[in-house]
Structures are given as C-alpha cells and as structure tokens.
Target: L-lactate dehydrogenase
Amino acid sequence: MENMQEALTKKEKEEAQRKKCEGDKKQREAREKEKKEETSKAKCDFLKKLEEQDVIKKKCAIRKIRDATGKKQEDAIRQKCAMKKMREQEEKERKENEARTAKAILFRSTLYRTNCKQDFQAGNKVSIVGAGPVGMGCAFALLTKRVTNNIAIYDVKNDLSSAQRNDLRHASLFLQNCNIDNSSTIECTKNSRVVVIAARPSSKPNESCQDQLLRSADMIKQIVPELLKQSPKAVFIVVSSPVDVMAWVARKITNLPYERCFSTGCHLDTARFRMFIGKLLRVSTSSVQGMVLGEHGDTSVPIWSSVSVGGTLLKDLLPPIGTDKDPMVWSNVHKSVVNAAYKVIAGKNYTNWAIGLTVSDVVSAIF
Ligand SMILES: NC(=O)C1=CN([C@@H]2O[C@H](COP(=O)(O)OP(=O)(O)OC[C@H]3O[C@@H](n4cnc5c(N)ncnc54)[C@H](O)[C@@H]3O)[C@@H](O)[C@H]2O)C=CC1
Ligand SMILES: CC(=O)C(=O)O
Model:
C-alpha cells in the first residue's frame, strides 16, 4: 500500500512536475509568442514608419518631379510666349521696314526729281559761242565758280567743240554734275538765259586790221540773230574783239536794249587796274577799289578819283594822282593795265583765264 502510495505520490509528483513543466513551457511559449508578437509589431511599426517615410519621400520626390515638370512646362510656355512675341515683333518690324522702304522709294523719286532740277539748272543755262581759249576760259570759270552747271558750247568747228565738251564732262564730278549740251549745231544754245559770244573768224594771211574788223562784224551780224531765235529772252554778252564795237554791231542788228546786249567792256581792265595797284602798295587786290571806264584796251580811262584802298581815297592823300603833276607817276599803273594783254599774248598767243573769270563775274551779277 505504502508502495502504492509512494508510487502514486511519485506519479502525482511527476504529474505535477510535468504539469509545471508544461505550464512553464506554455508560459515560456506565451512569453516567446508575446515577444515575437512584440518584435513583429515593432518590426511592423518600423516598417510602417519606414514605409510612411518612404511614402513621404516618394511624395516629396513626386512633388519635386511635379514641380520640376511644372517648371519645365512653365518654362516651355514662357518660351513659347517669348517666341510668339518675338515673331510678332519681327512681323511688326518687317511691316515697318516695308513701309519705310516704300516711303524711301517715294522719297527717292522726289529726291531724284529735285536733284534733276538741281543738277541741271535749266533756268540758268549759259551758251558759249566759240570754243577757243577764251570761250573755254569762260566755260571753265562759270563751272568752277559755280555760277551755273548748265552750259552749251557752240563752234563752227564741230570736232573742236565736241572735244572741249568731253574734256569738261570728264570733270563732271568736280563741277556739280554739270550738264553740257551734247549737240554740235546752233540748236544746242536753245533756251539760254545768257549767251556769251567769244567767236572769232579765222585770220587770213596779210589781212589788214580793217578787213579783219569787217569780217568780225559780219560774223556777229550773221550769228547773233540766229542765236536770238534759239534764245529769245537771253542776255547777250559780247567778248569778241574789238569788243565794244562788236557789242554795238550786235545791238544794231538785233535792236536789243543795252541791258540785254553789252560787252565785258572795261571789267577786265578794272580787274587788272586793281591788281596792279594792290601789287604796288603790297595790299590784296580785293582791298583796292577803283574803276577803268571807256573802251576796253588801249583807249580805256582810269578813274583815279574812284581809287581807294581800305576805304581811303588815294586822291585825298595825293590830289594830283594820275595827272601830269603826280610826283608818284601813278599813270604808269594804267600803262601796265594796257600792256598786260600784249605781254600775255607775247608769251602764249592769247589771253583767256582773266577774261573767262571776268565773264563769269558778269554772269553772276545777272543770276
Ligand atoms: N573782250 C576781251 O576783254 C577779250 C576779248 N578776246 C577776244 O575773244 C575772241 C576769242 O578769242 P580766242 O578764243 O583766243 O580766239 P580763237 O580764234 O582761238 O577761237 C575762236 C573760235 O571761234 C570759232 N568761230 C568762228 N566763227 C564762228 C561762228 N560763226 N560761230 C561759232 N564759232 C565760230 C572758231 O572756230 C574758233 O574756234 C577774240 O576775238 C579775242 O580777241 C580775248 C580776250 C579778252
Ligand atoms: C586780248 C584782250 O583783249 C585782253 O586780254 O584784254
């Protein structure tokens, strides 16, 4: 019995031990499970947090991307707008340019018409008859002194006049684009405002001065009425020698009044007179005033009472000036004037520059 009791107790003990072990095991398992669950929860939480963070990060990234995309789009739109504006500006400028060009073309035609008018001073045409040194001296002075840029040169010698015209034309660049009538006939003088007669019939051997004079007069009688037909309103300036006689012949044959037909008279003699006085006193020619009157050349008359230098009349300082009682013998100055042409002719066979400039001065007084 005792053994049985003992065996029972032992069994019970074992049972209790087993139950305790089981209970411990269960407890341990429960704790482990709990721990596991805690760990798993922590893991989950961690993962969740991680996930959340990831989501946030992703969201940020997406926002960033969106922002970037938006900015890109914005930039693209802005660029498109800028390009549109630029195209509009370009179009505007193109239209403005077109309008400006159209205006310029219109302006150019106006300019061209104006320049044509300016280029060819139609109203100030000067015809020169006789293409010898004197006629060409006149032409050269008229053009270079800018009295006119519209001239005609007429001579019975066609080749000569044509060559003279071309020689001057080649200097058109320096002569205000001068217009020189192209024709070789007398019609080239048509509608002149001034006609300068510088022609001389060719000399014949052993011809007397009187015969020469008569032939010159015949030339004037023949040519001036023809020229008047071409230019009925022109002023005629006679240069051909003997100049005052030839001007008288021209007036007689045409019945033109004095103011429309005259010679250069003593204008050249006056220029020489003032020059010689200036030279003697060592002052500039333009500071000297004074006149030579009468017929051009040998019989001209110096007007001593008119001579002044810088506004002072020489006769106030020297009352007998120019007379036989003049201690300074100023009359020698007039002798120099008379001899001037002979001296030049002795050297080059003709005079032309001084008479050319004299003519241009007279023409400028008409214009
Ligand atoms: N008044 C003055 O202060 C001055 C007058 N003269 C005079 O000017 C005149 C010209 O002198 P230059 O040129 O040296 O003489 P130039 O004899 O060399 O030339 C005269 C030109 O007149 C041309 N001619 C002749 N008959 C003509 C006509 N019916 N129609 C057109 N052309 C004609 C000739 O073919 C020639 O080419 C001369 O009578 C000269 O004495 C010269 C200097 C000063
Ligand atoms: C030739 C002429 O008349 C002169 O030069 O005065």
